[in-house]
Amino acid sequence: MQDRKQQLIVALDVPSFEEARQLIDKLKEDVDIFKVGSQLFTACGPVVVRYIAAMGKKVFLDLKYHDIPNTVASAVERAVALNQQTHTVNNELYDPKEHGIFMLTVHILGGKEMLKAAKEAALKQSKELGVLNPKIVGITVLTSDASTTNVLDIVLERARLAKESGLDGIVASSQEAAILRQEFGKDFIIVTPGIRPLGEKSQDQKRVTTPSEAIKNGSSFLVIGRPIVCATNPLNAAKEIFKEMNNI
Ligand code: C5P
Fold this sequence. Notes:
Elements: E1 8-11, H1 17-27, E2 33-37, H2 38-44, H3 47-54, E3 58-65, H4 69-82, E4 100-107, H5 112-129, E5 135-139, H6 151-164, E6 169-171, H7 174-184, E7 189-192, H8 211-216, E8 221-224, H9 226-229, H10 234-246
Helix pairs in contact: 1-3, 4-5
Bound molecules: cytidine-5'-monophosphate.
């Protein structure tokens, strides 16, 4: 059985470094990967990335870059450079080749030139600095979006463009994951947000599935925010989700 710890990403969707730190401390026993998104990064910037790395954990930087190729390439370079800016917590050392930002997002809508520029920038910068080279995954259609009837066609078309442009994978709902896995093979990364454990409300997410469905559908990583972050006991909520992930 696969190590489910390496498949669960907890989205640190909180408004301050202090709240993120408290959450990481509550979850660190079981959770290895944390998502830093636009809310938290806007609030506190790189400090949270360095903190997670220094705890020996991995960061999924979800800033969904979407701009002209030169600007996106420069942003990706700066993101990779964060993997070099070490800092230690409790005097523990971390290895910049293993920890830090291991994956980041761009919008596939930015087009082929932008996607290629992002991938090339990550490769070049990580080589130059001798740090972890983050995987780059492209956003297909947000999981909160159910406005069209042909979501699957759009997701497939964007996923093809991502692959052609050299990206490592895509972000899509687990409802599309099985078909994506079939077309793109086992090495293509499929990141699925919009996961709701049995009995949970879907909130603003529309294309939702349960953790076990996501695993069955071939998702590589499950991104889960509110069901863990807003739980009375986040560690217990994460443990329950691991159980559901194994229930396939
Ligand atoms: O709280 P919830 O589990 O809905 O959080 C899902 C996380 O996944 C959020 O941080 C959101 O930004 C992110 N996400 C998403 N849909 C995408 C890409 C990322 O919901 N396509």
